[in-house]
């Protein structure tokens, strides 16, 4: 992953066997549909990017890590509904 992408991003860690990850994906898609100018989401698959799971010490999915100006500003290690996710994005970005 290009470091530039991580300057301002929401890293969404998921895996194929996580039921909550599928639900979270629907929430993220709805958010992006309604807020195309706030599309900071980068999906990180456990099988494809174990290096990022290790770098950010992700042990559970779904996990969302909010990065602003290259620094981690928030971590959510649980499912967020659309309202919770929207509030977090408004607060940090």
From TrEMBL:
Specify one Pfam family: Thioredoxin
Where is the Thioredoxin domain positioned along the sequence? 1-93
| Domain of life, source organism | Bacteria
Q: Which of UniProt's keywords are assigned here?
A: Redox-active center
Q: Which Gene3D superfamilies match?
A: Glutaredoxin
**What's the family?**
Belongs to the thioredoxin family.
Q: What protein does this entry describe?
A: Thioredoxin 1
In its UniProt entry, the species of origin is given as Lactobacillus colini
